[in-house]
Design brief:
Number of strands: 8
Largest sheet: 4 strands, antiparallel
Distance between the termini: 24 Å
Structural class: mainly beta
Number of helices: 0
Amino acid sequence: HQRPVTVLTADWDTFQALTGSVDRTILLWDLEFGEPIAKFEGHSGTINCLTVDWLGRRFCSGAGHGDNALRLWDMSDCYCEREHEGHTGPVWTAC
């Protein structure tokens, strides 16, 4: 990331983690080697939350000011499957 990390979630079974940042990106990390293995871009605001289905290889991200959207991502193919816009304020949490 080029700016501070705002959210982190990890899975010790797969030794992977996801981080979201003020730089509006999400990185998928290989924890064994400490290196990013994928980058997800599309939000236009700070990443505020991440909720992951490690077995299904999908995750949901929510962003703040300038975006206020919730996105569903496919980790295997690194693309955004769905975008949910229309929130009037930042998305702070997703379950």
